[in-house]
From TrEMBL:
One of its GO terms (molecular function) is clathrin binding. Subunit of clathrin-associated adaptor protein complex that plays a role in protein sorting in the late-Golgi/trans-Golgi network (TGN) and/or endosomes. The AP complexes mediate both the recruitment of clathrin to membranes and the recognition of sorting signals within the cytosolic tails of transmembrane cargo molecules. Residues 1-41 are annotated as: Disordered. Belongs to the adaptor complexes large subunit family. This is Beta-adaptin-like protein. Residues 1-17 have a biased composition (Low complexity). Keywords: Membrane, Protein transport, Transport. Residues 722-839 form the Beta-adaptin appendage C-terminal subdomain domain. One of its GO terms (cellular component) is endomembrane system.
Length: 844
């Protein structure tokens, strides 16, 4: 334990200033160090307690190190413990002082009292001073052979501590081999469990560099060792049982009889009082039977009762953890849990996070036989005082309706929600009614009759307002006031802050125009003019697209914007099946609770597309010569933001060619869509024309909105082909300086071929490939699935540089690229060359 930070509070009778008190303690300890008078141990206890209390509140008492060590020469175990605590606290920050403790700790490691031997060995291994590892080998070797199980247990963990201090010392002393023999022969189960834990950690760390360690790690999963541990599992404590069960889950059985033998051995573990043991056992059962469909389903039936029992007992936190695992199983096999739906009803005293998970499970287990009861229960929650739970319950009703179970009754319930005088209930119901109409258009008459009575002024939430606007446009022929409601919304365009609502409004007005042209003509002109002047790029682009579509051909525009209605059969799932399978593979871990694979929340490089950790490993400069190698530490010291930053200020200054961007024209309110209205009522006549004639015809069409959009200028001549220097040279310092100074010219995403992703297992191959296309790598880093590269290139005819940051995610087969250039006018040409080279990577 590191010493606490120094306290900044002013001294008081209960808060000593430090200096005088430490001096007094030093003199008192020195007097008692060699004393053998009666009651001296009691005096030492009082002084030791003062030292520990001062250390705890932040006073530096390291000056007492020598006196504390001298006073530790006693058989009093309480004094020993306090002295070991003090020594362990100051040894790491004062390695020179730690040397003073070696003699008395080694002496205590040979004490007659096994408790003192164990405590001394634990303290000796906890010093964590690299210079003292030579003094650990002897005591550890004796501790592993000690007659007392407590000392052996401490010695096993001490070997693991030694490995983390000096791996070579641990391996050279053959401690892993000793631990393996001890694991098989020792009579104490805790010693066996500690040996298993230490060996797994040591051999997993060594496996990447040693084939022997890799074989030993695989040897732990052999049938004799796995069966040996499983036969003794009842003798282990809960922690050790979980460790053995985790090992058994990785075991690959030789045949079906092997599977049934293991399951019979572990059958009684499903009734264990500890939830961690039950979940670990369930993981073994599930993983062993994955290849046996019928048995796997029977396993679901068998584990259902223990899981439901765990949910109803214990704290809400434990219930949530178990529910998360149950939720995962319910999503994989909902039919097995459909008869137990009442276990997922919410209790009034449950926290909201438990209720939310239960609502998701109720949605999953709903079928023809239980839909009515589940929906009735969910409707009760809609009036809950907990607004988030009320919202979730309404969404759950809608999800069940989309599963085609008892749709008639559910639609009636949702329409009743629309009539409730609660804004959040109405908002959620509107969103769900929109989805229902997309899947069941036959219900439009009943739904629109209720929706038509809702005032748009009473709907404030963006998603709900967007849903209402969608229905106004989609069913404007059935809603008498639809054009006028839309016109009122357009008049308050500037007051609408949601881009989603403005986008829906544009589309709804377009649809309404094709169904009721005379009434919507003016509103459409106003909507397109407002959209063209909108500051949001998506809204501006859609308005411009609609305008040009109408200008080209109104009949074509109608077919594009208002095609015949088609029912949506399946809605997109928010989580891919690959992610769900990955979570299932990590059963009985935080992955299930977080509902995401472990690599998404444990590895720092997965925090975002541009986030990279400082611990990615060394960044190596491309090239074979040692003179051209720059370490990660040096690069980071020169410019920490260059390779490891997640957000760069110049992203806000990306050059997008706004100087030549289209400038939205002013809207002339006096102009009307006469041409469009007339065209709509006439049969469309299409005459094939040449491209040039078509362009002239389009330009000859009168401006439908009177917006006076000028004709597009003739395209500029193509730029000359860019050529790169085949032997470009750029030193790291210049690269970093330019990277800081230059703005981002282009930021793009590119998809890699499967062959390229496969070849990326050796990142050096990519560096050589790009070098063959005159693009040099100056730094690289990362590990699968995220790799980060910095490239540079130069023009052949002039000293103009291109700098590239390329982040490749091998799991999504995507490459994120940022390009900076001295000559930004040629950035796109260089990007084409770069992407072309990247597309050929791995292709034979």
């Amino acid at each position: 334990m590191a010493p606490p930070a120094q306290s900044q509070r002013s001294p008081s009778p209960s808060q000593p200033s430090g200096k005088s008190e430490v001096s007094d303690l030093k003199s008192q300890l020195r007097q008692l160090a060699g004393s053998r008078a009666p009651g001296v141990d009691d005096s030492k206890r009082d002084l030791f307690k003062k030292v520990i209390s001062y250390m705890t509140i932040g006073i530096d008492v390291s000056a007492l190190f020598g006196e504390m060590v001298m006073c530790s020469a006693t058989s009093d175990i309480v004094l020993k413990k306090m002295c070991y605590l003090y020594v362990g606290n100051y040894a790491k920050v004062n390695p020179d002082l730690a040397l003073l403790t070696i003699n008395f700790l080694q002496k205590d490691c040979q004490d007659q009292d096994p408790m003192i031997r164990g405590l001394a060995l634990r303290s000796l291994c906890s010093l964590r001073v690299a210079n003292l590892v030579e003094y650990l080998v002897g005591p550890l070797g004796l501790g592993l052979k000690d007659s007392n199980s407590y000392v052996r247990m401490v010695a096993v963990i001490g070997v693991l501590k030694l490995y983390h201090i000096s791996a070579s010392t641990c391996i050279d002393a053959d401690f892993p081999v000793i631990l393996k023999n001890l694991m098989i022969t020792d009579s104490d189960t805790q010693v066996v469990a500690n040996c298993l834990s230490a060996l797994q950690e040591i051999w997993s760390a060594e496996a990447s560099t040693s084939e022997e360690a890799s074989r030993e790690r695989e040897g732990l999963l052999s049938k004799p060792i796995v069966y040996f541990l499983l036969n003794k599992i009842r003798e282990f404590n809960e922690w050790a049982q979980c460790l053995v069960l985790e090992l058994a889950a990785k075991y690959v059985p030789s045949d079906n009889n092997d599977i049934f033998d293991i399951m019979n051995l572990l059958e009684d573990r499903l009734q264990h009082a500890n939830g961690a043991v039950v979940l670990a056992t369930i993981k073994v059962f599930l993983h062993l039977t994955l290849s046996m469909t019928d048995v796997h389903q029977q396993v679901y039936e068998r584990i259902k009762a223990p899981l439901l029992t765990l949910v109803s007992s214990g704290s809400p936190e434990q219930s949530y953890a178990v529910l998360s695992h149950l939720h995962l199983l319910v999503m994989r096999a909902p039919f097995i849990f459909s008869s137990d739906y009442k276990h997922f009803y919410c209790q009034y005293n449950e926290p909201s996070y438990v209720k939310k998970l239960k609502l998701e499970m109720l949605t999953a287990v709903a079928n023809e036989s239980n839909t009515y009861e589940i929906v009735t229960e969910l409707c009760e929650y809609a009036a809950n005082v907990d607004i988030p739970i009320a919202r979730e319950s309404i969404r759950a009703v809608g999800k069940i309706a989309l599963q085609q179970y008892d749709v008639n009754a559910i639609v009636d319930r949702l329409l009743q929600f629309l009539e409730m005088e609660k804004d959040y209930v109405t908002a959620e119901a509107l969103v769900l009614v929109k989805d229902l109409l997309r899947k069941y258009p036959q219900w439009s008459h009943d739904c629109i009759a209720v929706v038509g009575n809702i005032s748009s002024k009473n709907v404030q939430e963006p998603k709900a307002k967007a849903a209402l606007i969608w229905m106004l446009g989609e069913y404007s022929q059935d809603m008498q006031d639809a054009p006028y409601i839309l016109e009122g919304l357009i008049e308050s365009w500037d007051e609408e802050h949601s881009a989603e609502v403005r986008l829906h409004l544009l589309t709804a007005v377009m649809k309404c125009f094709f169904k009721r042209p005379p009434e919507t003509q003016k509103a459409l002109g106003a909507a397109l003019a407002a959209g063209l002047a909108d500051f949001h790029q998506d809204v501006h682009d859609r308005a411009l697209f609609y305008y040009r579509l109408l200008q080209h051909n109104v009949s074509v525009a109608e077919r594009v914007v208002n095609p015949p209605k088609q029912a949506v059969s399946v809605f997109a799932d928010t989580q891919s099946s690959e992610i769900k399978d990955r979570i299932f593979d990590e059963f009985n871990s935080l992955s299930v609770v977080y509902q995401k694979p472990s690599y998404m929340f444990t590895d720092k490089e997965h925090r975002g597309p541009f986030e990279f950790s400082e611990e990615l490993g060394n960044l190596s400069i491309a090239g074979e010569s040692a003179d051209n190698v720059v370490s990660a530490q040096r690069v980071e010291a020169n410019d920490k933001d260059l390779l490891l930053s997640t957000s760069e200020k110049e992203e806000a200054k990306i050059s997008t060619g706004n100087d030549s961007a289209y400038s939205a024209p002013m809207y002339d309110a006096s102009s009307v869509l006469v041409t469009a209205s007339q065209t709509l009522m006439e049969p469309a006549i299409s005459n094939p024309t040449l491209p040039g004639q078509a362009t002239q015809a389009i330009l000859a069409i009168d401006d439908l909105l009177g917006l006076g959009i000028p004709a597009a200028p003739a395209p500029p001549p193509p730029p000359p082909q860019l050529k790169l220097h085949t032997r470009a040279v750029l030193d790291p310092a210049t690269f970093q300086q330019k990277w800081r100074q230059l703005p981002v010219a282009l930021s793009q995403e590119y998809s890699l071929s499967p062959q390229g992703i496969a070849a990326l297992t050796a990142p050096q191959a990519l560096l050589r490939h790009m070098q063959g296309h005159s693009i040099q790598c100056i730094a690289s880093g990362g590990q699968s699935p995220n790799f980060k590269f910095f490239f540079f290139a130069q023009k052949a005819e002039e000293p103009s540089n291109y700098l590239v940051e390329c982040i490749i995610n091998s799991s999504s087969a995507k490459a994120q690229m940022k390009i900076k250039a001295d000559d930004q006018s040629t950035s796109q040409a260089f990007s084409d060359i770069f992407q072309s080279a990247l597309s050929k990577f791995g292709v034979p």
